[in-house]
Amino acid sequence: MRKLRHILMLISVSVSAQEIERSETDVFLDELFVLDSLEVLNLMDDLKKQDYLYTTVLYNDKVLFSGRDFGVNQFSAFPSVTYIDAHNFFINMSAGYFSGIDPHWDFVSFSGGYSDYINKKKSLMATMVYSYSSYTADVANLNNQRISGSLSLRIKPFRNSLSAGYLFGGEPAHYISNNTYLNIDLLDNRKLDISIQPRLGLFWGNQTITELVQSGFRFTFVDKNVFQLINTELSIPFTFDVGNWDVELGYTFSFPNPLPNETDLKNTGFLSFSVGYLIGL
Question: Would the pTM of this model clear 0.70, i.e. be above it?
Answer without folding.
Answer: yes
